[in-house]
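user: Kindly work through both lines:
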Amino acid sequence: MTIPNSNAFRHRKRFTRVLIGTSVALLPAIISAAQPQSSGWASRDPAQTIQPTAAPSYAGHVVRTTPATPNLREVQGIDYREIDRYANSLVAGQRVPGLAIAIVRHGKIEFIKGYGITDAQNPEPVDTHTVFRLASLSKSFASALTSLLVQQGRIHWNDGVTQWVPSFRLPTQSATDRVTVENLVSQSVGLPKNAFDRDIEANLDYPSAVSKLATVNMKCDPGACYSYQNVAFSLIGDVVFAATGNFYPEAVERMIFKPLGMNDASYGLAGIQASPRWARPHIGRAGAWRSLTPKPTYYRLAPAAGVNASISDMAQWLIAQTGHRTDVLSENALDNMHSSKVKSPTELRGSSWRRGRLNDASYGLGWRVYNYAGHRVIFHGGAVEGYRGAMALVPERDLGLVILWNSSSSLPSGLMPTIVDRALALPGLPWLPKEITGLSEQSAPADSGLPEPEGND
């Protein structure tokens, strides 16, 4: 099956000409980050059958469900009243503590809102500036920073990693010499899947984990196969330091966060704890959510999993990723990041929406590249203890969406394919369970909502 050209974001002036009549008609629905207000899909409205749910109680506090936002309506296939009801249903009855959603289209924020609470023990409402831990969504920032440095001529994609990190070693000298900068951020180093992630989770420091890469049997030659990594991926931070003299988080802040106005964004445990409002991670215990202090473990792998950001920050990130901030990220850089570098067939056997929608899957540079029912979708997910997130770009609709939540449940994951299906006018499938949608019948199984392994998205 042929899917739309990989450079679908490139011709944005053409998109503007085609859509300008619609855009002018929808100007009242184009909203600011501070005043979310938008639209949705025109098909059946199953969420209207959801029965009212009592306001949840946390630690003796009654926390009311986020009220429906007035004036939501349909915009080009997406019914934001529907999304609003589904999100409210997810946080009702303590299904998940809190979540936040942003959707951008044609370089504008079309929908943005927080739901639920930041902390089950000390509840405060999630808003658009509540900071979440991004986990592996952080990888897209690593590929973007690398792209900027390549654009400046400071590093090159085909540079050997040992050119910048002479101490780097794999089991053989041949493999060591062949690993390039591109291999690091395209998940094609050739190591076994998630090499030494368990050691990181057991509190091993990053330099020791890197040194252990020399002790593991290779899965394939560098560049020859896909194998997801966090430790090896994070070597890009060492490359950045060697090439610029700047610590990796400082480089991202200077070259990405500040230019894009991502004012809530930070790196590391200290960064999230210093945020004025941040969502605590939650795990399920005895039928209730218990908030935790975030673990420092994966924060030690800053390029792979170190970013903290609010949904307002992520809306700006999506606007840049859809090609509307070429002063920061050029079209050529975006095309390269969003292009397939190595096939990732294991993705086709993943969650229910992957099994139901994906015809092909690859890894680009810090992004996954999908043939989604014949359409090109760029995606990444993230998971660490008590936090999850998902973000997607739909080039032929000039659309981006991101969902962040502060629990180990996978239940909100179904929102992402639900929104993508509506944007692409695909026949709707119930990627969310009937308790959320209100549908009396399910034609396809929704995911269980059970937690997935850390660092595996």
